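Our collaborator T.R. sent over the components below with a one-line note: 'Predict the complex.' Nothing else. No constraints on interfaces, no templates requested, no preferences about which chain binds where. So this is a plain run: every listed entity goes in together, and whatever single assembly comes back becomes the starting point for the next discussion.
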Amino acid sequence: MKNCEYQQIDPQALPTPTPTPPPHHGNDMEKKKEPRRPRRKWEVFPGKNRFYCDGRIIVARQSGVLPLTLGLILVTSGLFFIFDCPFLVKHLTSFIPVIGGVLFVFVLITLLQTSFTDPGILPRATPDEAADIEKQIDNTGNTSYRPPPRTKEVLINQQVVKLKYCFTCKMFRPPRTSHCSLCDNCVERFDHHCPWVGNCVGKRNYRFFYTFIVSLSFLTAFIFGCVTTHLALRAQGGKGLVFALQESPGSAVELVICFFSVWSILGLSGFHTYLVASNLTTNEDVSTQNIGINGGTSSPHNLNIRIFLCHFSMIDRRGFLPADESAQTGSADIELPTLAAKSEINVCTQGTKGLLESAALSPLLSTSCPQGKPQNAHSCPETSPALNSDPTSEFSKGCRGNQTSSSHGDTSRPRHTKARSKKCRREALHIPNPAFDVPVSPTSPDAAPDSKARSHKGGSLTPLQ
Amino acid sequence: FPQFHNLQELRHSASLANKVFIQRDYSEGTTCKFQTKFPSELESRIERTLFEDTVKTLNNYYAEAEKIGGQSYLEGCLACATAYLIFLCMETRYEKVLKKIAKYIQEQNEKIYAPRGLLITDPIERGMRVIEISIYEDRGSSGSSSGSSSVSGSTAR
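Returned assembly:
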């Protein structure tokens, strides 16, 4: 580091980028109090998420079958309250609608929380960080422009673990982190992408997800039991089941829905209870690679029970842009890059030592040679299938892999196999083949994060008010 | 937050020279801990002990946040029983510690790092992956910016 003379930075004039008190998990964004129109960070978020309520709600790009899930729950519960409750209140006890109501509310709330919260998305590496990482890798003798998928070995609790490099997010993924192609984000402690809730399930929303499936299994079982009791009571006295069904047609619908869902949901709850107890994620359970880190250890430091404690309610400014930079650069940054941003693609992806000098000595908005861009655009697609095959396979193993495992019948958990194969069959219908997404994802977000990255550079210095 | 204006101009007078990234230390598991190894780029800028103190304090804060004890169990059970709606009113312990960390980093920046031409970025803004330390250098042209008096005051040394 050259010993240049430097002026003392006035700490008052150079406020540190401390986040203001983070709001609760629903509200992820902060608004900059500026007279010009402030842009919230979610507007330039590079992943494939969608945001509602001015950034308070985050969902994946495809909502999957969330409307179906909601519809089923609402319809079944509605029919229950309309058809079964009056009869049962009269003949049994009035606690039944109370219990049903509580369970129903619980299920709805946790479902919405699972769908609309950030599962633990890791913000992409800033260009400086990416350059720093590239520099370190280059130093180890790798001279090709686009090296093959890189791994870094670290020692975790005296165990050697390979950290994979994520080419989309330009960083080495921390342990137990995986990249979801559907959402185009790296998610911490990635469990799986659940189309039923239309979101990834990861570190931050796993407890919502778990509470959701457990309470849903209680609700389904409860409704199933009540409907059976109802029909049995009605059919008493020799009247027959058909008569009972005719009198209460809604119960027939409920019976069918509940009968088919209760097994799969109970199975899923049991499976996830097993995962929690053995400190695994679905992803790890299916893939054979990561089992070493945490699977099976009962050390209190690694207990999966932690996910239910306040520990993982990390509300942070993940992937967010300080509104002052966005306001300054104008609305052109939202969509695919303007000329200035295009030139930064070169800055971002050069990956040579020269990058640091050019980035450091000139303002980040300076343009580099445009001919770098075609090179980048060219190199991206040819490497992406190879590179993203890893994240694709990782995440897809979470669900689709189960298809193969269940069809080969080599799992030792028949109950969850049936549940998961059922779920996965339905999911297969709704998830488009991620392989189609894969070539697209590296190229398009490459532009977007750089416009965002420019602001990130400023973001490290500006107050996040 | 008025300082924001000054920052834009300040960047003209004190340019960003380099950034150092302190990586995570996974030797004791996956809990949040950063390496205390002193990076060579900072050798001429700050004393080793000061740097190590900062990182060690940060590590202690994170350990405190992630500690599981009676209070966290209670909080967890209460949260589960209310379908996690309790967090609309209450702040979790982790968030409280994160606030403390932010304050600590700001204080460190003001007292120790900014006077040496350095700036620490809160790791939470980098996804808890790295501690980013920006190294600033004077461009050599003081007062070139059309900045406010505070800027010219700081550069007129």
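Summary for T.R.: Confidence is low (pLDDT under 50) at residues 1-35, 294-302, 310-465 of chain A.
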